Amino acid sequence: MATAQKKHQHFLKGEAVSTVHWVRTRYASYMPSRKHHRVLLWAVFLFFAAVIAFQLAYPYGRGLPLASISGIDVRLKSHDELAEIIAKQFDEAKLKIAVGKDKSVEFPLKSAGAEPNTEEMIKKLSDYTLGQRLIPGSILWQTRGLDELSVFYANKPFHEYISQKSKELSFPPQNARLAIEKGVIVASEAVSGSQVNSDELLAAVSGAKIRPGATTLIEAPARRTKADRTSADLSKVRIQAEAALAHVVTLSGGGQQFKPDKNEVASWIVLATDAKGDVTLSVDKEKIKAYLNELNKKIGTPAGQTDMTIVDGREVGRVTGSLGKAIDSAAVADQIALALMKAPPAVALGLPLVDVQPGIIYNSKYTATQAGLQAYLNDTARTKNMHIKIEQLDGERWMAAARENESIPSGSTYKLFVALVLFDKMERGEIHWNDPMLDTTVAGCFERMTVASTNPCAEKWIADFGRQYINDFIHARGFSEGTSFTTGSANQTTATDLNKYMKGLNDGTLVAGSYRDRLLDSLGRHPYRYGIPTGSQGVVHDKVGFLWDYVHDTAIVQHPRGTYIMTIMTKGQSYAAIASATREIERIMYP
User: Is the model more confident about 263 or about 38?
Assistant: First the structure.
């Protein structure tokens, strides 16, 4: 037995020696004979192995080492951080459409119905496949920068907006004109007209490379038409203008005498073109009144101010100001205009004074009452184009609202309703968190929809569920017809419906259990916290929405002195305006 074991061990040892001998033989046959060549070859091998190891270890889904957005370094940025930067760059992007040097219009890109392809741009900045990682040095070949926004345009708003801009950039030819500059008659040459076709402009804007966070210049495809009249055709009216300029004006009042200089008188004389294209001479009475207003500071008496105090929308007191005295500028302007158009060249006029009523200053105040809160909402909704609804869930349990039932484009707040349908499908076992979806999973898509607030996953779910199905589903749960996914170019909702949703999320009657926990987690850590969270003193779970010039925020606010639900929907405002309104609302509710 021992002898057999020894023979077996001897055999294994021989096999090992043979293998080592084989490896050494092959190594010697393939490797260079000189030692320094072998060292160099090993160094090259180890270098490339280290490069590949680094590339394999580079985090997936993060901004690549050389990635940037319009010069902003985004290496190692997460998906949510990239989405936030892209959203800001999109928000700051503008278009300037010009017709040569003659006319241009400039406006925010989002006003034209544009929306960013955020996921596509994130993929460009972070996508690095396993196959690429196995190629030495490939990390240096990846995307170096995002210098062009990937956007798409909502069909109806885009067409309507571009149609409006094509009209603004279309104008008839302008004949040569006379003007008065520094008291001297100057002739300007004719300007060709412009005719911009809406469809051609639409194609030009659609195909433009949009710069992130900057203004992109687009030359409008315009057809130019020549003017009929040149500066040589204006000799007759030029003589009339020079005669008007020769007048010397003297004005007397309040024991003082005033003589406007030549440049001042020249600013009152207007050379214009009538409907027939003929140049005409007239006098700008408003310019004369502006000059008389300056004289009024020297001989008139300022009127006082009537202070009117408004508390919670009602006048509670006023202090009436004193009467003032001012030049009767309308009468004097008429007299001067008449005198400048005829002989003699010397014009002497008096400056009569008339009574001036005191101005009114409105001092609006809002008491720390439900009436005060309602008055503030009424004023804010009217003056700042806002739709607001507030409900305290404890304490005084105040409720106040203004324009709360008006249905307007929802922005990304519609994703709350998509999540509601998704949770129902999951509860039925039709969808699971680990199911594959787009380039991620259902869980990954939910994260993108609720935290980064990008659109592809939400749009895929809308397509899968069906717009009418979503409408029927949410309406069956008590939401109004003002919330709709079948209205055309944009989903719609109301402040009332968003408040209803957030209240049901807070108390678990609408979304419960792990679904509730997951959604609240997303609403508490997204990056777009410039509205209600910035203005509030409490802990805020909110969902923002931004589309075109609509900016919204709906939230559950756990203030140190009570919990409340609030939705603020705006058009033409900003998150700073929402934050400001939030601060004032909390001042009233929790003084």
Answer: 263
Measured CA to CA, the distance from residue 378 to residue 371 in angstroms comes to 10
Q: How far apart are the first and last CA of the chain?
A: 97
Q: Per-residue pLDDT for 282 more than 70?
A: yes
Q: How confident is the model at residue 19 (pLDDT cuts 50, 70, 90)?
A: low
Q: Is 70 exceeded by the pLDDT of residue 6?
A: no
Residues 156 and 176: their CA atoms lie apart, in Å, by 40
CB pairs under 8 A, 24+ apart, for 453-458? 453/83, 453/87, 453/412, 453/415, 453/526, 453/528, 453/544, 454/83, 454/118, 454/119, 454/122, 455/115, 455/118, 455/119, 455/412, 456/119, 457/119, 458/412, 458/414, 458/415, 458/418
Question: Which residues, 6+ apart, have CB-to-CB distance to 564 below 8 Å?
Answer: 390, 391, 392, 393, 557, 589
Angstrom distance (rounded) from CA 568 to CA 553: 5
Higher pLDDT residue, 91 or 42? 91
375 touches 465 (CB < 8 A)? no
Question: What length does the chain have?
Answer: 591
Sign for the CA dihedral angle at 573, 574, 578, 581 comes to negative
Distance CA 528, CA 525 (A): 9
Quickly state the pLDDT bin for 486 (edges 50, 70, 90): very high
Which candidate, 408, 404, 525, 418, places its Cα nearest to that of 462?
418
Residue 448 predicted with pLDDT over 70: yes
What's the per-residue H, E or C state across 230-259? CHHHHHHHHHHHHHHHCCEEEEEECCEEEC
Of the candidates 374, 378, 386, the one whose C-alpha atom is nearest the C-alpha of residue 589 is 374
d(CA 449, CA 455): 7
What's the average model confidence in pLDDT over 15-36? 61
As a whole number, mean pLDDT of residues 425-436 equals: 95
Element (H, E) at 371: helix 370-384
